[in-house]
Write a structure and sequence with these properties.
10 helices; Hypothetical protein af1432; binds fe (ii) ion; mainly alpha
């Protein structure tokens, strides 16, 4: 599947605002792939599809999590987490993308996980630093991303966890496991 076909498919699934975000993630992912030696086409494809399921009804996502035997603890955490694993499933089912690296990058773009592969790191980070993002700390992560992928990823994870703590929100265990894995390297 080429870039234009992927964009057309995803455009029908998400809002204009989210589509603009998606274009930003694709741009950042492509730059990171070139810098850190990932396959640029896979990076672009994963970025384009990363928020594919963002606007699916919660009930539909919940049913997919149950039917596909995804980790059931997802259901006791914020539904914002669901679109990532459900997205990987729906992208494979509805668009025919089969590449496991691309699908895993979609699947783990919100929670992260221990032992993240290069493409997973790139999509997680691109989602955080794409040009449309504008929140405290993002410029520091952008600068880190210019020279050290893992340092940038770790900083993005730290910021995300700190932000959740500051709001007294729950943190999904996989996110802590991902952070612990990165900090111990
Ligand atoms: Fe997302
Ligand atoms: Fe996103």
């Amino acid at each position: 599947m080429n870039r234009e076909q992927a964009l057309e498919l995803v455009k029908a699934q998400i809002t204009d605002k989210r589509y603009q975000h998606t274009l930003g993630v694709a741009e950042s992912a492509l730059a990171l792939a070139r810098k850190y030696g990932a396959d640029p086409h896979k990076a672009e494809l994963a970025a384009i599809f990363h928020d594919y399921a963002k606007f699916r009804p919660k009930e539909e996502m919940k049913q997919i999590i149950i039917d596909q035997e995804m980790p059931s603890d997802l259901l006791s955490f914020h539904s914002e987490l669901w679109h990532a694993p459900v997205g990987a499933y729906l992208v494979q089912k509805e668009t025919g993308v089969e590449d496991p690296e691309v699908l895993d990058a979609i699947k783990y773009h919100t929670s992260g996980r221990p032992g993240m592969g290069l493409l997973e790191k790139i999509i997680y980070l691109a989602d955080y630093i794409e040009p449309g993002r504008n929140f405290p700390g993002v410029d520091e992560v952008r600068e880190l991303a210019e020279k050290d992928l893992d340092a940038a990823l770790l900083k993005a994870m730290k910021n995300t966890i700190s932000f959740l703590l500051s709001k007294s929100s729950a943190v999904y265990p996989e996110t802590f496991f991902a952070y612990n894995d990165m900090i111990s390297r």
